[in-house]
Amino acid sequence: MDFDLFVIGGGSAGVRCARIAAGHGARVGIAEQRFWGGTCVNIGCVPKKFMVYAAEYGGNAQDAQAFGWEVTRGAHHWRTLIDAKDKEIERLNGIYLRLLNQAGAKIFEAKATFIDAHTLDVGGQRVTAETIVVATGGHPIRPEIPGAELGIVSDDAFYLDDMPRRVAIIGGGYIGVEFAGIFAGLGAETHLIYRQPLPLRGFDEDLRLGLAEALKANGVILHRDTIPDSVTRDEDGYAIALSDLSVLNVDLVFFATGRVPNVTGLGLEAAGVQIAANGAIAVDEELRSSVPHIYAIGDVTDRLNLTPVATAEGHAVADTLFGGNERKVSLQNVPTAVFSIPPIGTVGITEAQAPKGAKVFVTKFTPMRHNITGRPRRTLMKLIVDAATDKVLGAHMLGEDAPEIIQGLAVAIIAGATKSDFDRTIGIHPTAAEEFVTLRTQTRIVGDEFPGE
Ligand SMILES: Cc1cc2nc3c(=O)[nH]c(=O)nc-3n(C[C@H](O)[C@H](O)[C@H](O)COP(=O)(O)OP(=O)(O)OC[C@H]3O[C@@H](n4cnc5c(N)ncnc54)[C@H](O)[C@@H]3O)c2cc1C
After folding, report:
1. Ligand 1 pocket, 305 CB below 6 A?
2. Residue 315 bears catalytic tag
3. Which residues contact 149 (CB under 8 A, 6 or more apart)?
4. pTM of this prediction?
5. What is the CA(150)–ligand 1 centre distance, in A?
């Protein structure tokens, strides 16, 4: 065999797996067909967050006036943002490649496909490996409606030539609400169209309500319980026929309508790898596919599609196979963020998932600096506590710095912290985070009627 391990895909999951395995002394090959670092670095988390920063600076400039600064908001130059973002990403691509080289992995800048269970075609070259890891990620999809091809998906949003004047984002998942914040913050007339009563299905209901309020406060026009029926081009841009029978005219249609795993054209059938009903590679707890020496990690397994999960899986497989350290990745209590404006941080269970009788603590307040700026912005914090054990089962926050704060709380929750542990922790003053350790008044118990909108 040419290699002990061959990794298909140089994204978050694949690069980590290849790098760690090579570090353990394995003979490793890795193929990437498009860009090192994959989705996260090139068309996901990283450029998205740069754009969120850009969107927030306008408001910050305006806020500064309330603190005595003589600044005006001025115009935003899209090209400057995109050039700065591209330059930084080029730097990151280089770092990924260097790390792989330094670890001693053999690099293939090509597409890899299975010929049989131990043989791959990598850019026309045949290679064989004892173990193969599939880390091919996923891609965005459009809905099946007439004119869907006229709209863009998130992959394209990072390379637009100009900022749209009017944009319609279809889909109220995390990518939809994040781009709504970006475009509204940069000054576009922004519509968010989603089929549910509230955006962010699956998140805690209080967060969803709070986010809908925040989006409105930022000027995003919400179209709840609505789906698009068709998109057509007209002399004034695009016309979207909506399910409420209205027609919306915009310059850009952005479909944030879901992602699917990259499994087609990989030759998985030649290797005997089975695909689950949801289109993902089915894996067991050790991330083995139906063929024991072929593993799948990251988004191609479509379980919890987050970069830190993908890297943790890549690392665990490499340690287990070549590091003499058998490990599994737990998908319980994985903290996550939504980089809406303001952002969300969340860990543990939602109120809807909590056992009946669990205690719910909620607080809402105006962040300190906005008492001076007057900007209509609210922070929401919430704890869900098990009535029998006093353990904190869930912590949720919508507000400035929420992802930073929740990352810390996630450690406490994974360690099994109780509400009394939170209560005996002294706060840091004056911060928003201290509210998490001073929540004394119970708001309701799970099973009581949810206050709603
Ligand atoms: C807009 C957006 C924003 C996001 N924001 C966040 C965030 O804030 N936080 C977070 O944690 N996650 C975020 N994510 C999710 C995160 O990007 C993914 O979970 C992560 O990139 C998954 O890593 P992966 O290695 O499994 O797949 P990918 O990063 O997609 O990497 C797969 C790689 O495989 C390559 N490939 C595919 N097929 C082949 C083949 N046959 N041969 C060779 N190469 C191949 C692809 O070119 C790609 O580079 C975001 C995603 C998107 C789209």
Report:
1. yes
2. no
3. 142
4. 0.97
5. 24
